[in-house]
Design goal:
With 269 residues, this protein is α/β, with parallel strands linked by helices. It has twelve helices and eight strands. A hairpin with a 3-residue loop joins strand 1 and strand 2 (13-18). GO terms for molecular function: hydrolase activity. It comes from Microvirga makkahensis. Keywords: Hydrolase. It holds the Pfam family Abhydrolase_1.
Length: 269
Amino acid sequence: MTTIETGTFLSRIPFVRIGPGSDPIVVLNGGQAFVRRPTPARAERDARRIARLLPSHRTIYVLGYDPAPPAGYSIDLIVSDVSRILRDDIGPASVMGISFGGFVAARLAADHPDLVKDLILMVSAHRLSDQGRRSVDRQIEYAWQGDFEGFLDEFGLVFRRPWLNWLLRLRFKQERKRLNETMNDSAIIVRGLHAVAGEDFGKDPSWLRAIRARTLIVGATRDPFFDADAMEETARLIAGAHLKLFKGETHMLPVERARDVAKVVRAFL
């Protein structure tokens, strides 16, 4: 039976641990980790979904983010937290960053090469696409205005399969009456988005050359947030990086093609 533990590191960073073994894999989740109000049930559900992509014999830690991020919250602060957790509590690990979490994972691997044994960027790159940047800017604007309906509409067509987009829109419609209960505080959302997407990583990507970990980049050719150009550029700048692009898939590749993605990730690890 799979063991699941929840808790916090540094007295504030939530985590879910799956499996009692050694040889840890640390997962840095995407932006949804600070968009929705955190609940143990939601964290455990996300962790189980992520665990399906990874080897079952490894211990998996899915880390959240600071639930009360300070003003000036940044990639550097997040990387500082994660590096302390690895150094003091978990030890060197394979690290997977999903979507915006890939920004953190890549910077962690560049700044702390002794802590990252393997690096996986899942539907992520060192920068957003032009379309992705515009979408995040709109998300920040909607969040500042407290317009959660507009904010969620930005995610209305993220699946490749039309029926899944229809189900997603139906879910959003059903939740509209209680969005103030399920969505995080506007300031927290904005600080989180600014931290992981406010910087222009595309201006000077030379820091990627400092990454020494074995690296796998898994992406989709129709991803509106991280396009093929961004992922190919990331792969060129990280020595020996492996790039696997799924043709015709979107940002929800890890959900829609979970089995195929898992095969690629497990073979790499």
